[in-house]
Amino acid sequence: MNTLAELKAGKLNGVTHLQLVEELTEFPPEIFTLADTLEVLDLSNNNLSDLPAEFTCLHRLKRVFLSFNQFKHIPTVLAKCPALIMVAFKGNQISEFALKSLPKHIEWLILTDNTLSELPEDFGNYTQLKKLALAGNNLKHLPTSMANCTNLELVRLSANNLTKLDDWLLELPKLAWLAFAGNEFNKAQCLTKSTLKNTPLENFQLKKVIGQGASGVIHLAKAKHSNVAVKLFKGAITSDGYPLDEVNCCLKAANHTNLINVLSYIEQSKQLGLVMELIDTNYTNLGLPPSLETCTRDTFNDGCNYPIEAVYKIAKQMANTLTHLHDNYVSHGDIYAHNTMINEQYDVLFGDFGAATNLAMLSEYQQQQIQLIEVRAFGCLIEDLLSTVSTADKQSELFGKMSDIAQLAKQHELSKRPKFKIIESKLS
């Protein structure tokens, strides 16, 4: 993090990345002295409500973060920024999204947790968009022009007021990660019926935090006879939607060898939670989340190298797990290596249902389309894992077969993608 004092003193000349958190109410004009080098500007967690007309002089700026400020509109000056490909306005009060507010070449737009009731009719002009986060707004419908956004890969629509899911959305050729729980047509009103028990939080002694995600905090906890993991949800809404929808999807998914086992749930007036089996310490994350550069695709530690036989074993387990989920009318919405854990034998544990959706109320056609969207995500996962294998393994027959399956799963025409049961048979 930088300081305004450093900027004013000229100590930041030549930087490519600037972050200021100083309760700013006005845009610091000194930032313009960095116009020839600045590529990433992070002014999140301030009190800004607008941008000056001179903002366009930041001609090398690629990414701007303005989350948790006081914006009520999207400044149209952004549309004139020649290099801008990413804009983040999470947690503002934005209700106004005017026509031609953003550059046509934008690739990544974050508007989570605002008060938007509609998107502009010209939204379809943003044809380069890959990643779109709109959870936690008041959207009642999506503009039909959005069907032109054929490069969209990840879309978050949870916790809005949508009255239906448009078929054109489910036919986008590159869409792989979709979340839409908690809308008018599918919002959970109560917990789904389950054989699991509602266990009071007082029954557990929370020892320490062992994990944290967008929706909640996971604690190591002592139960009556053993240690367990207790996930406590942070609040009424998360970046992926409502905690109630996540809990319902976990319960609906039921037990599976490769899913983290849910033992019970916690439902109290001010706290919702899940009690889960404690994961063996031998398990580690299969991958790392996407970076600013990869946008929608996972990353891996330097030197990460999975044998081709391991990729094959992981793929078989994932295909079986995803067949199970869709048989139970659950879409995961976030099929990624960073949401998958493995041990030294490459046994898989798959989790994080924050972006999951109950599909039971959708038509058979829409259920099928959503499965085929997730098939593409599976193809991306396999492709990402194949990128880590050794040069020698890349010459193997198994590598060729796995590559073929990944490409089959990723093809743009959804009707030509195999369902998970077919992928299982191909892998066998």
Automatic annotation (TrEMBL):
<feature type="binding site">
    <location>
        <position position="231"/>
    </location>
    <ligand>
        <name>ATP</name>
    </ligand>
</feature>
<dbReference type="GO" id="GO:0004672">
    <property type="term" value="F:protein kinase activity"/>
</dbReference>
<dbReference type="Pfam" id="PF00069">
    <property type="entry name" value="Pkinase"/>
</dbReference>
<dbReference type="GO" id="GO:0005524">
    <property type="term" value="F:ATP binding"/>
</dbReference>
<dbReference type="InterPro" id="IPR000719">
    <property type="entry name" value="Prot_kinase_dom"/>
</dbReference>
<dbReference type="GO" id="GO:0005737">
    <property type="term" value="C:cytoplasm"/>
</dbReference>
<keyword id="KW-0808">Transferase</keyword>
<keyword id="KW-0547">Nucleotide-binding</keyword>
<dbReference type="InterPro" id="IPR011009">
    <property type="entry name" value="Kinase-like_dom_sf"/>
</dbReference>
<keyword id="KW-0433">Leucine-rich repeat</keyword>
<feature type="domain" description="Protein kinase">
    <location>
        <begin position="204"/>
        <end position="428"/>
    </location>
</feature>
<keyword id="KW-0677">Repeat</keyword>
<dbReference type="InterPro" id="IPR017441">
    <property type="entry name" value="Protein_kinase_ATP_BS"/>
</dbReference>
<dbReference type="InterPro" id="IPR032675">
    <property type="entry name" value="LRR_dom_sf"/>
</dbReference>
<dbReference type="InterPro" id="IPR001611">
    <property type="entry name" value="Leu-rich_rpt"/>
</dbReference>
<protein>
    <submittedName>
        <fullName>Protein kinase</fullName>
    </submittedName>
</protein>
<dbReference type="InterPro" id="IPR003591">
    <property type="entry name" value="Leu-rich_rpt_typical-subtyp"/>
</dbReference>
<dbReference type="InterPro" id="IPR050216">
    <property type="entry name" value="LRR_domain-containing"/>
</dbReference>
<keyword id="KW-0418">Kinase</keyword>
<keyword id="KW-0067">ATP-binding</keyword>
<dbReference type="Pfam" id="PF13855">
    <property type="entry name" value="LRR_8"/>
</dbReference>
